[in-house]
Design a protein that fits this description.
Blueprint: E1 10-12, H1 27-37, E2 44-47, H2 59-72, E3 78-82, H3 88-100, E4 105-109, H4 120-133, E5 138-142, H5 144-147, H6 153-159, E6 165-170, H7 175-185, E7 190-193, H8 199-204, E8 209-211, H9 219-230, H10 234-254, H11 256-266, H12 283-296
Parallel strand pairs: 1-8, 2-3, 3-4, 4-5, 5-6, 6-7, 7-8
Helix pairs in contact: 1-2, 3-4, 4-6, 6-7, 9-10, 10-11, 10-12, 11-12
């Protein structure tokens, strides 16, 4: 059984962490970005996710980001905090700190450094231990492109047996597996598409929404895909889904966080620099990115 009243339905941007030209966290820029995003009917935000460069932040910086984000996120929008660390105990501690700072739920990525030892038994124990200790609901974060670990539907269903584990951000892109998770874990366990590249297919097999990098720069389009689906307007949903694929690819698997931040700068938001060892997008790639944004309709010339 999962908490019946905690619904995740909707679209969430996994927001980037803004840095100033000295590489320090820039809370004012974060507040400005959130003021823009708050104008849209987004269900909430993921703070300290992959696009938040959370693996490059110190613990103190993570807490600063969470505090600043919560202050700028209205109470009617969820703040989901990325709290997954390599060790179970450290994950528990960060999750508790995130809850103290106002996080509504925690997104916990699979530990992965000892990849060969991350058996289903180990991962089930890890997630259940975190969920036991957490004062807020837990979402599983399956991100095989970054971790090298791809949770099977059966393992997800076993993890989902814990009453404080309410859903998953599934970023592997296997829509068949997303449907199988829905079948094995039941409708109370909520699946979120982890990329706009498969938002519509994910919704068609039972996903309730998505945590989408694209929603940082094209929130209206991401919301519209889901709304067309809910309204049964399949042709409109399909047309928009297909039109968003090139721009989504550019800011995810293509050129990643540097491209996402560059696109935000182009659109009048604050993207700013990435943190080393990532490098900023080259001028040539910026030109190509701008053309993609214009062609997709996300940006006007």
């Amino acid at each position: 059984m999962n908490p019946p009243n905690f619904r995740l339905d909707g679209i969430y941007p996994p927001i980037p962490t803004p840095f100033d030209d000295q590489g320090r966290f820039a809370p004012g820029a974060l507040a400005d970005n959130l003021a823009h995003w708050n104008q849209f009917d987004l269900r909430g935000y993921v703070v300290l996710g992959t696009n938040g460069e959370y693996v490059f932040l110190t613990e103190e910086e993570k807490l600063q980001v969470l505090k600043a984000a919560r202050a700028a996120i209205p109470s009617d929008k969820l703040m989901i905090a990325g709290t997954g660390c390599e060790a179970t105990g450290i994950t528990i501690e960060l999750t508790k700190r995130a809850a103290d700072l106002g996080a509504d739920a925690a997104l916990v990525i699979t530990p992965s450094y000892y990849t060969g030892h991350m058996t289903p038994e180990v991962l089930i124990h890890h997630f259940h231990a975190v969920a036991d200790a957490s004062p807020i609901p837990i979402l599983i974060y399956n991100m095989p492109a970054c971790t090298g670990i791809d949770l099977s539907a059966a393992t997800v269903a076993a993890i989902a047996e814990h009453p404080n584990i309410i859903g998953i951000k599934e970023s592997g892109g296997n829509v068949v597996k997303m449907g199988d998770i829905r079948r094995l874990a039941g409708p109370a366990f909520q699946v979120l598409a982890g990329s706009a590249s498969f938002l519509l297919p994910g919704l068609s097999v039972g996903a309730v929404g998505g945590i989408l990098a694209l929603a940082n720069i094209a929130p209206a389009q991401c919301l519209a895909i889901r709304q067309h689906f809910l309204d049964g307007e399949w042709e409109q949903a399909r047309e928009l889904q297909v039109r968003m694929i090139p721009v989504n690819t550019a800011v995810t698997r293509g050129w990643g966080v540097p491209a996402l931040k560059a696109a935000m700068d182009m659109l009048g938001l604050y993207g700013g620099p990435v943190r080393s060892p990532l490098l900023p997008l080259s001028d040539d790639l910026k030109d190509r990115l701008r053309a993609i944004l214009v062609e997709s309709g996300v940006m006007h010339e």
